[in-house]
Amino acid sequence: MAVGIITGSGTYALPGFEGGEALTVQTPFGSCPVTRGSYGGVDALHISRHLAGHARLSNQVTHRANVWALRELGATAVVGTTACGAVDPALEPGTLIVFDDLHFSSNRLPDGSLCTFFTEPGHPRRGHWILQGGPFSAGVREALLAAAQEAGYAPRDGGTYGHVDGPRFNTPSEIAQLAGAGVSAVSQTAGPETVLCGELELPFGLIGFVTDYANEVAPGEPTPVDELIELMGRSTSIFGDVLRIALPLIEATSPTAAGTVYRFEQA
Predict the structure, then answer these.
(1) What confidence tens digit (pLDDT) does each residue in 112-136 have?
(2) CB burial class (10 A; 0-12, 13-18, 19+) of residue 261?
Protein backbone atom coordinates (compact mmCIF):
# COMPACT_ATOMS: atom_id res chain seq x y z
CA MET A 1 0.00 0.00 0.00
CA ALA A 2 0.96 3.66 -0.23
CA VAL A 3 -0.27 6.52 1.93
CA GLY A 4 -1.07 9.84 0.27
CA ILE A 5 -0.07 13.09 1.98
CA ILE A 6 -1.54 16.45 0.95
CA THR A 7 0.18 19.47 2.49
CA GLY A 8 -0.72 23.13 2.38
CA SER A 9 0.54 26.59 3.24
CA GLY A 10 4.10 26.56 4.58
CA THR A 11 4.74 22.88 3.81
CA TYR A 12 5.81 22.55 0.20
CA ALA A 13 8.22 19.67 0.88
CA LEU A 14 8.43 17.20 3.75
CA PRO A 15 11.65 17.07 5.83
CA GLY A 16 13.31 13.67 5.49
CA PHE A 17 11.14 12.47 2.61
CA GLU A 18 13.18 9.69 0.98
CA GLY A 19 13.31 8.87 -2.70
CA GLY A 20 11.63 11.97 -4.02
CA GLU A 21 10.69 10.78 -7.52
CA ALA A 22 8.83 13.63 -9.23
CA LEU A 23 5.88 12.48 -11.32
CA THR A 24 3.27 14.25 -13.40
CA VAL A 25 0.07 12.22 -13.42
CA GLN A 26 -2.45 12.79 -16.18
CA THR A 27 -6.03 12.55 -14.92
CA PRO A 28 -9.48 13.21 -16.42
CA PHE A 29 -9.34 16.48 -14.45
CA GLY A 30 -5.94 17.73 -15.55
CA SER A 31 -2.34 16.98 -14.67
CA CYS A 32 -1.09 16.61 -11.12
CA PRO A 33 2.50 16.83 -9.82
CA VAL A 34 3.19 14.09 -7.23
CA THR A 35 6.36 13.16 -5.38
CA ARG A 36 6.72 9.42 -4.78
CA GLY A 37 9.05 8.04 -2.13
CA SER A 38 9.13 6.81 1.44
CA TYR A 39 8.23 8.48 4.73
CA GLY A 40 8.59 6.84 8.10
CA GLY A 41 9.59 3.68 6.25
CA VAL A 42 6.25 3.59 4.38
CA ASP A 43 5.62 4.05 0.66
CA ALA A 44 4.26 7.58 0.36
CA LEU A 45 2.82 9.91 -2.27
CA HIS A 46 3.13 13.63 -1.54
CA ILE A 47 1.14 16.43 -3.12
CA SER A 48 1.74 20.08 -2.31
CA ARG A 49 -1.61 21.82 -2.83
CA HIS A 50 -0.10 25.19 -3.62
CA LEU A 51 3.13 23.99 -5.31
CA ALA A 52 6.59 25.36 -4.49
CA GLY A 53 6.64 29.04 -3.64
CA HIS A 54 2.87 29.01 -3.10
CA ALA A 55 2.36 29.37 -6.85
CA ARG A 56 -1.32 28.43 -6.53
CA LEU A 57 -3.69 30.30 -4.26
CA SER A 58 -6.56 28.37 -2.71
CA ASN A 59 -8.86 29.27 -5.60
CA GLN A 60 -6.43 27.59 -8.03
CA VAL A 61 -5.92 24.23 -6.27
CA THR A 62 -6.84 21.30 -8.54
CA HIS A 63 -8.65 19.14 -6.00
CA ARG A 64 -10.15 16.54 -8.33
CA ALA A 65 -6.88 15.97 -10.16
CA ASN A 66 -5.01 15.68 -6.85
CA VAL A 67 -7.29 13.08 -5.29
CA TRP A 68 -7.70 11.13 -8.53
CA ALA A 69 -3.92 10.98 -8.98
CA LEU A 70 -3.40 9.58 -5.49
CA ARG A 71 -5.93 6.82 -6.12
CA GLU A 72 -4.41 6.16 -9.57
CA LEU A 73 -0.95 5.69 -8.02
CA GLY A 74 -2.24 3.21 -5.47
CA ALA A 75 -2.92 5.23 -2.32
CA THR A 76 -5.07 3.28 0.11
CA ALA A 77 -5.36 6.12 2.65
CA VAL A 78 -4.75 9.87 2.62
CA VAL A 79 -3.70 12.39 5.28
CA GLY A 80 -4.32 16.09 4.79
CA THR A 81 -2.49 18.79 6.72
CA THR A 82 -3.61 22.38 7.01
CA ALA A 83 -2.50 25.62 8.61
CA CYS A 84 -5.71 27.05 10.02
CA GLY A 85 -7.26 29.95 11.91
CA ALA A 86 -8.95 29.29 15.25
CA VAL A 87 -12.67 30.04 15.51
CA ASP A 88 -12.82 28.43 18.95
CA PRO A 89 -10.94 30.87 21.24
CA ALA A 90 -9.73 27.93 23.36
CA LEU A 91 -7.53 26.83 20.43
CA GLU A 92 -4.32 28.75 20.97
CA PRO A 93 -1.86 29.37 18.11
CA GLY A 94 0.55 26.46 17.92
CA THR A 95 -2.13 23.88 18.75
CA LEU A 96 -2.57 20.69 16.71
CA ILE A 97 -6.14 19.55 16.07
CA VAL A 98 -7.31 16.26 14.56
CA PHE A 99 -10.73 17.06 13.11
CA ASP A 100 -13.76 14.78 13.37
CA ASP A 101 -16.44 16.82 11.56
CA LEU A 102 -16.78 19.11 8.55
CA HIS A 103 -18.65 22.34 7.77
CA PHE A 104 -18.64 22.71 3.97
CA SER A 105 -22.18 23.69 3.14
CA SER A 106 -21.37 25.22 -0.25
CA ASN A 107 -19.94 21.87 -1.49
CA ARG A 108 -18.27 23.75 -4.35
CA LEU A 109 -14.91 23.52 -6.07
CA PRO A 110 -12.88 26.70 -6.63
CA ASP A 111 -14.35 27.09 -10.15
CA GLY A 112 -17.88 27.15 -8.69
CA SER A 113 -18.89 23.68 -9.85
CA LEU A 114 -20.23 21.12 -7.41
CA CYS A 115 -17.59 19.19 -5.50
CA THR A 116 -18.11 15.66 -6.81
CA PHE A 117 -16.70 13.07 -9.17
CA PHE A 118 -20.26 12.01 -10.04
CA THR A 119 -20.89 14.25 -13.03
CA GLU A 120 -22.01 11.77 -15.71
CA PRO A 121 -25.64 10.57 -15.69
CA GLY A 122 -25.86 6.79 -15.74
CA HIS A 123 -22.22 6.19 -14.83
CA PRO A 124 -22.00 2.78 -13.09
CA ARG A 125 -19.97 4.22 -10.17
CA ARG A 126 -22.35 7.10 -9.43
CA GLY A 127 -23.74 7.29 -5.92
CA HIS A 128 -24.43 9.18 -2.71
CA TRP A 129 -21.83 9.47 0.06
CA ILE A 130 -23.78 8.78 3.26
CA LEU A 131 -22.04 10.08 6.37
CA GLN A 132 -22.84 7.99 9.41
CA GLY A 133 -20.25 8.77 12.06
CA GLY A 134 -18.70 11.79 10.37
CA PRO A 135 -16.62 12.47 7.24
CA PHE A 136 -13.17 11.43 8.49
CA SER A 137 -11.80 7.90 8.76
CA ALA A 138 -11.78 6.75 12.39
CA GLY A 139 -8.64 4.68 11.78
CA VAL A 140 -6.68 7.54 10.24
CA ARG A 141 -7.80 9.84 13.07
CA GLU A 142 -6.62 7.33 15.68
CA ALA A 143 -3.23 7.05 13.97
CA LEU A 144 -2.81 10.84 13.85
CA LEU A 145 -3.77 11.27 17.50
CA ALA A 146 -1.44 8.50 18.65
CA ALA A 147 1.41 9.83 16.50
CA ALA A 148 1.02 13.40 17.78
CA GLN A 149 1.07 12.18 21.37
CA GLU A 150 4.16 10.03 20.73
CA ALA A 151 5.91 12.96 19.04
CA GLY A 152 5.44 15.02 22.21
CA TYR A 153 2.54 17.23 21.16
CA ALA A 154 -0.86 17.50 22.83
CA PRO A 155 -3.40 17.42 20.00
CA ARG A 156 -7.04 18.44 20.35
CA ASP A 157 -9.06 15.27 19.80
CA GLY A 158 -11.94 16.31 17.60
CA GLY A 159 -13.41 19.52 16.31
CA THR A 160 -15.24 20.77 13.25
CA TYR A 161 -13.17 21.87 10.28
CA GLY A 162 -14.72 24.84 8.49
CA HIS A 163 -13.98 25.17 4.78
CA VAL A 164 -14.12 28.78 3.60
CA ASP A 165 -13.63 30.07 0.07
CA GLY A 166 -10.49 32.05 -0.64
CA PRO A 167 -8.38 33.72 -1.45
CA ARG A 168 -9.65 36.52 0.82
CA PHE A 169 -9.94 35.98 4.56
CA ASN A 170 -13.27 36.23 6.37
CA THR A 171 -15.13 39.13 7.94
CA PRO A 172 -16.03 39.18 11.66
CA SER A 173 -19.68 38.51 10.76
CA GLU A 174 -18.76 35.45 8.70
CA ILE A 175 -16.55 34.06 11.46
CA ALA A 176 -19.31 34.64 14.03
CA GLN A 177 -21.72 32.71 11.81
CA LEU A 178 -19.26 29.79 11.61
CA ALA A 179 -18.76 29.89 15.38
CA GLY A 180 -22.52 29.62 15.78
CA ALA A 181 -22.43 26.47 13.65
CA GLY A 182 -19.83 24.93 15.93
CA VAL A 183 -16.78 25.35 13.70
CA SER A 184 -13.47 25.00 15.55
CA ALA A 185 -10.99 26.26 12.93
CA VAL A 186 -11.01 27.33 9.29
CA SER A 187 -8.89 27.20 6.17
CA GLN A 188 -9.52 27.31 2.44
CA THR A 189 -8.70 23.91 0.93
CA ALA A 190 -9.57 20.74 2.86
CA GLY A 191 -13.34 20.63 2.30
CA PRO A 192 -13.12 19.34 -1.28
CA GLU A 193 -10.39 16.84 -0.35
CA THR A 194 -12.61 15.34 2.34
CA VAL A 195 -15.58 14.93 0.00
CA LEU A 196 -13.61 13.64 -2.98
CA CYS A 197 -11.70 11.08 -0.92
CA GLY A 198 -15.06 9.98 0.49
CA GLU A 199 -16.53 9.45 -2.97
CA LEU A 200 -13.53 7.32 -3.99
CA GLU A 201 -13.75 5.43 -0.66
CA LEU A 202 -10.26 6.52 0.33
CA PRO A 203 -9.80 6.69 4.12
CA PHE A 204 -8.99 10.34 4.84
CA GLY A 205 -7.92 12.17 7.97
CA LEU A 206 -7.19 15.87 8.51
CA ILE A 207 -4.80 17.43 11.00
CA GLY A 208 -4.57 21.17 11.51
CA PHE A 209 -1.96 23.48 13.01
CA VAL A 210 -3.39 26.72 14.38
CA THR A 211 -1.39 29.72 13.17
CA ASP A 212 -3.69 32.54 14.32
CA TYR A 213 -7.14 33.49 15.57
CA ALA A 214 -9.78 34.13 12.94
CA ASN A 215 -11.17 37.64 12.63
CA GLU A 216 -12.10 39.09 16.08
CA VAL A 217 -12.16 35.67 17.79
CA ALA A 218 -9.65 36.81 20.43
CA PRO A 219 -9.85 40.20 22.16
CA GLY A 220 -7.17 42.79 21.47
CA GLU A 221 -4.89 43.11 18.47
CA PRO A 222 -4.92 40.46 15.73
CA THR A 223 -2.08 37.96 15.54
CA PRO A 224 0.94 39.88 14.17
CA VAL A 225 1.88 38.86 10.63
CA ASP A 226 5.45 38.03 11.64
CA GLU A 227 4.16 35.67 14.34
CA LEU A 228 1.80 34.02 11.86
CA ILE A 229 4.68 33.51 9.41
CA GLU A 230 6.90 32.10 12.18
CA LEU A 231 4.21 29.64 13.25
CA MET A 232 3.53 28.60 9.68
CA GLY A 233 7.23 27.91 9.20
CA ARG A 234 7.30 25.85 12.40
CA SER A 235 4.33 23.77 11.22
CA THR A 236 6.45 21.99 8.59
CA SER A 237 8.69 20.22 11.10
CA ILE A 238 5.75 19.50 13.43
CA PHE A 239 3.69 17.92 10.66
CA GLY A 240 6.79 15.95 9.66
CA ASP A 241 7.27 14.66 13.21
CA VAL A 242 3.66 13.47 13.34
CA LEU A 243 3.51 11.96 9.85
CA ARG A 244 6.69 9.91 10.25
CA ILE A 245 5.01 8.13 13.15
CA ALA A 246 1.46 8.11 11.77
CA LEU A 247 2.19 6.51 8.39
CA PRO A 248 3.47 3.19 9.82
CA LEU A 249 0.41 3.09 12.10
CA ILE A 250 -1.89 3.65 9.13
CA GLU A 251 -0.12 0.95 7.12
CA ALA A 252 -0.34 -1.53 10.01
CA THR A 253 -4.05 -0.98 10.72
CA SER A 254 -5.45 -0.62 7.15
CA PRO A 255 -8.17 1.89 8.15
CA THR A 256 -11.53 1.96 6.46
CA ALA A 257 -13.12 4.93 4.72
CA ALA A 258 -15.70 7.13 6.43
CA GLY A 259 -19.35 6.65 5.63
CA THR A 260 -20.85 4.57 2.85
CA VAL A 261 -21.13 5.26 -0.86
CA TYR A 262 -24.55 4.05 -1.99
CA ARG A 263 -24.04 3.11 -5.64
CA PHE A 264 -27.22 2.53 -7.65
CA GLU A 265 -25.74 -0.10 -9.94
CA GLN A 266 -24.84 -2.19 -6.87
CA ALA A 267 -28.06 -1.68 -4.91
Answers:
(1) 999 999 999 998 889 999 998 899 9
(2) middle
Q: What is the pTM of this model?
A: 0.96
Dist CA 106 CA 114 (whole Å):
8
Domain, as residue range, for 10: 2-266
CA-based nearest residue to 13, from 197, 212, 243: 243
Q: Which amino acid is at 43?
A: D
Q: What are phi and psi of 36, to 5 degrees?
A: -105, 135
Q: What span, in angstroms and rounded, lies between the C-alpha atoms of 192 and 102? A: 10
Q: What is the CA radius of gyration of the chain?
A: 17
pLDDT tens digits, 198-228: 999 999 999 999 999 999 998 877 778 788 7
For residue 121, give the 3-state DSSP assignment. coil
**Burial classification of residue 183, based on how many CB atoms lie within 10 Å of its CB (0-12 exposed, 13-18 middle, 19 or more buried):** buried
The answer to whether 100 and 232 have CB atoms below 8 angstroms apart is no
Buried b (16+ CB within 10 A) or exposed e, 232-260: beebbebbbbbbbbbbbbbbeeebebbbe
> How buried is 190 (Cβ within 10 angstroms: 0-12 exposed, 13-18 middle, 19+ buried)?
buried
Query: Is the pLDDT confidence value at 184 over 90?
Result: yes
How far apart are alpha carbons 116 and 107 in whole angstroms?
8
Domain total of the chain: 1
CATH number of the domain encompassing residue 39: 3.40.50.1580
Between these two residues, 182 and 263, which has the higher pLDDT value? 182
Structural contact between residues 69 and 34, judged by C-beta atoms closer than 8 angstroms: yes
